[in-house]
Amino acid sequence: MWRVVVWLLILGLPALGCPSGCRCYSLTVECGSVGLQEVPPHAPPTTQTFFLQDNAIGQIRQWDLSALGQLRYLYLQNNSISALEPGAFRGQAQLLELALNRNRIHLLSADTFQGLEHLRVLYLSGNRITRLQDHTFRCLQRLQELHLQENSVEVLSEEALVGLSSLALLDLSRNSLRTLQQGSLRPLASLQLLRVTVNPWLCDCALLWFRRWMSREGQRLLNPGGRRLLCASPPRLAQRPLLEVPGSSLVCIPPLLRLEPRRQTLRPGAELRVSCQASGFPQPQVSWRRGAPGAPGGRGGEGAGEAEARGGRRFGFGPDTGSGMLLLSNVTPAHAGPYECEARNAGGVSRLTFHLSVNTSSSSSPSSPWRARRGRDSYPGGGAVSREPLRALTQGSMDFHALGPGPQAGIAAGIALLALTSLLLLALICSRHLRHRLRKEGEGEGAAAALFANDAPLALPQEYRRGRLYALPPASRHQEALSRAQGRAEGDGREAEPADALCPNQSLLFDTRVAYEIHC
């Protein structure tokens, strides 16, 4: 009985080792076009050929292929792969061919292909790669074919292809390349075929070396179509083969910088905007760096993208823009110092320095620089000014004694004038009230004529003498008129009201024994 069980287990092992929905035979696993969204697990560890094309796989993780150490051929084309985790192929030391074409890959790093020491062919065509970073393929020392056509590669740095000493075929056709740096092809010691057609080449001085290379070594490395590499710009050279353009026509204009302003002082918490514009041909690439030439680099402020650069932090801007804006939000004293604007193109490099100062003094402001001086100073029109800072409005009212003699005299005169105006207003109200009461009693015609001659209140006679204003006590004729009015009221049998009852506060305002003298 136990022999039957053993035979059943042996016969069932292949079925148990094949991923669901896939077909497994010999050393090959076929999982193409089955709607997979990730690499299926449980593939036999002895698999040497793995077909995963035409699925919806979105990423390759570190553990997806870790158990397949015997892989020779891996086909992942026509998926939705956008991310390759660093070290995802670390266990595939025997892999010879890797197909990643027709996916959504946009970024490759130096750790992407770690572990593929024996890889011979790499397909990366039809992706979204825009830039090849330095040392991206350093681990592929035995790679013979690199297919990068139909991407969006704009820049190929001098060290992007370092490590590809065995590469025989490089396909960069149908990309967005505008130029090639002179040292970019130097690491390709075994190169036999180069394809660079259908790119928007900018025919200027930066391609002068490439034109010379094409006329010599390029004759055997370029295919017949590649020898007719066409210029896309400038307009005067458009659609002309690079080999037919005279070397004297491949010119460059070094960058010319304009930086406004060159120096600025801000208060803490302010925002800085400085424009750095560059002109030249080809259009220069503008970048910012913290620190002047030869000075140690520092860290930039908020709101600016940063990228490592030589000797300091660089604020990066997109290439070929011709202008760059240095933006620092919420400025602090740590932001103070020099900033360098750099413009670079094939014709050369130009730099200008901007200086930022942060004013932390509480008694100074950009609009009133005279307040920042110490001790005593003077207004432009004369007069001494105290250098002691005024209190902030949020901390209470200002101290009167802290003001100068001039402001003190002005404030005192204003207060005195306000008090006099109040007294005159009260007197006028009381006088009009008295006239109204007398008229109401029916005896106001004579009394009103006597008391209010010329419609002027008799409670406050005024007299101008030699530039002085006197406020005198009530005249005797006014008292006599009031007595007459009281007598008439008694003759009619009515009780006469005292004059003070009509305006109770009048005696308090104008004492008959006191004369008020005000100097004009």
UniProtKB/TrEMBL annotation:
Q: Which intervals of the chain are annotated as region Disordered?
A: 283-316, 358-386, 480-499
What residue spans carry the Gly residues bias annotation? 294-304
The record places domain Ig-like at 254-357
Q: Which domain of life is it from?
A: Eukaryota
What keywords are assigned to this protein? Disulfide bond, Leucine-rich repeat, Membrane, Repeat, Signal, Transmembrane, Transmembrane helix
Q: What stretches pass through the bilayer?
A: 409-430
Annotated signal sequence range: 1-17
Q: Where is the composition biased (Basic and acidic residues)?
A: 480-497
| Name the record gives this protein | Ig-like domain-containing protein
User: What species does this protein belong to?
Assistant: Conger conger (Conger eel)
